[in-house]
Amino acid sequence: MHRCLLVLCAVVLLFVKEAQAHEAGAGWSSARPDGHAPIGVMGDHSHKAGDWMASYRLGVMSMGGNQTGTASESVDEVLADYPVAPTGMTTFMNMFGVMFAPNSRITLSAMLPYTIKDMDHLTRMDQAFTTKTDGIGDVSLTALIVLKRWGRQQVHLNLGISAPTGSVTETGDTPAGPDTPLPYPMQLGSGTWDLLPGVTYLGQTDWWSWGGQATGIVRLGENDQDYRLGNAFNTTAWGARRISHAISTSLRLALASWGNIHGADPSLNPAMVPTADPDLRGGTRLSIGLGVNLLGTGGFVKGQRLAAEFLVPVYQDLDGPQLKTDWVLIGGWQYAW
């Protein structure tokens, strides 16, 4: 993993030097297919004064098999310690967003998620069952504040806050009975107000663009169920090649790290299933993603974008047993005016 990050840093430095050699252009622009980061990156770009943008993203994450540290665990190994073992999970994340720039230095963003989750389980009695939840997640409000522009490069702050609009009291039918409180991964929100700090760097030449972003999630206090999720840190870097005025492709590395849960939901039994143990929720994951951006350049599609990105983990270190991520697919539509 460290070698990957060193290589990534070297590539970014090369791109920065190239940008400095092409600073005679009109400056960094979002009005290109690669003017937006891969669709899986949020808060990546600012807008001109008075501009609006509406967006929709659909993310699908598939998880399967358990892992402790960097080693896989079979279902039988998990069932040796717990009466119930999770075997797989699918998450559909619908994200609705709107952005507005009151001036050239500040862009405001609001995001509303709607999540659908399915988790499969197996008991020691060889009984299979699935729990399901769906609903609104935590709404976030973010300000993107441009710190500096030079040539075709830009740095901006990401300063946001997340409101506890997602449920943390979801229940479902399990072998233990109907309306059983569900473990932490099946809840729809954090239940706490969370700070969303970050910083983003962008650069362009005539046919290339690149960027890097570091963001965090800082949990504030405990929720009504007597716990708070672990803090999280995410960093990512990408490079994109503009194929034409309407198409670009991208390559991205994404590193995510998140902590264990502090406190515990008193309605959950951590000895029953590992997903109910607050000390088995942390981890680190490094993923690589391939993406494509399509930009409408004329007629009724002018200003509209379609984008997709497919990410696969290349390294995972989990406080487990915990379900590992197999892949993530993100598609989206954006319209600026």
Describe the structure.
There is one protein chain. The protein has 337 residues and is mainly beta. The chain has a single domain, classed as Porin (Beta Barrel), CATH 2.40.160.40. It has helices spanning 2-20, 75-79; strands at 52-69, 71-73, 84-100, 106-123, 128-136, 140-150, 153-162, 171-174, 177-181, 193-204, 208-220, 227-228, 232-242, 247-258, 262-263, 283-295, 304-336. Strands 1-3-4-6-7-10-11-13-14-16-17 form an 11-stranded antiparallel barrel. Strands 8-9 form a two-stranded antiparallel sheet.
Number of helices: 2
State the end-to-end distance. 41 Å
Please state the CA-atom Rg, rounded to the nearest Å: 21 Å
CATH architecture: Beta Barrel
Order of helices and strands: HEEHEEEEEEEEEEEEEEE
Estimated helix fraction: under 10%
Shape: elongated
Fill in the CATH topology.
Porin
What percent of residues are in strands? Answer: over 45%
Please sum up the structure shown.
The protein is 7% helix and 57% strand.
SSE blueprint and pairings:
Layout: H1 2-20, E1 52-69, E2 71-73, H2 75-79, E3 84-100, E4 106-123, E5 128-136, E6 140-150, E7 153-162, E8 171-174, E9 177-181, E10 193-204, E11 208-220, E12 227-228, E13 232-242, E14 247-258, E15 262-263, E16 283-295, E17 304-336
Antiparallel strand pairs: 1-2, 1-3, 1-17, 3-4, 4-5, 4-6, 6-7, 7-10, 8-9, 10-11, 11-13, 12-15, 13-14, 14-16, 16-17
